[in-house]
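User: Hi! I have a protein structure encoded as tokens and I'd like to know what sequence might fold into it. I'm fairly new to this, so please keep things simple.
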């Protein structure tokens, strides 16, 4: 008897199939437009059953496509020594506003719109 993998609405962060990676030489790396945190928060609120392993693989591939990645300086994309760069903290703050529905400035609204477009694209797979 074949064992069925458990289903979940949480999708773990993965770089599988990532189309942009950055460069050690110029200190860049790819940053997700739709963050894994925002994706999982939105998906946790969606009605319906959990996602199969195949569905999770599809969404992971979409998350790592070039349309959902932009190049950033590594120092602006990572949490550094527990505090994080200002750019990283700004990203975290914008994601929290999106997650909590507190879109209080134009930058957060613009980011939310881009993320919403990407999420709808993922859901349409």
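Assistant: Happy to help. Inverse folding works backwards from shape to sequence: for each of the 125 positions I chose a residue that suits the local structure. Here it is:
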């Amino acid at each position: 008897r074949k064992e069925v993998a458990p289903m979940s609405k949480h999708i773990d962060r993965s770089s599988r199939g990532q189309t942009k990676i950055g460069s050690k030489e110029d200190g860049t790396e790819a940053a997700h437009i739709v963050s894994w945190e925002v994706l999982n928060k939105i998906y946790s609120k969606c009605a319906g059953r959990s996602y199969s392993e195949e569905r999770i693989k599809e969404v992971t591939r979409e998350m790592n496509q070039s349309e959902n990645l932009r190049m950033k300086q590594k120092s602006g994309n990572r949490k550094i020594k527990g505090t994080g760069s200002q750019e990283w903290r700004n990203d975290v703050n914008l994601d929290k506003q999106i997650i909590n529905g507190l879109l209080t400035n134009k930058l957060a609204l613009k980011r939310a719109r881009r993320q919403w477009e990407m999420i709808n694209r993922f859901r349409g797979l």
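A useful reference point when you look it over: Strands lie at 28-32, 69-73. Feel free to ask if any position seems puzzling.
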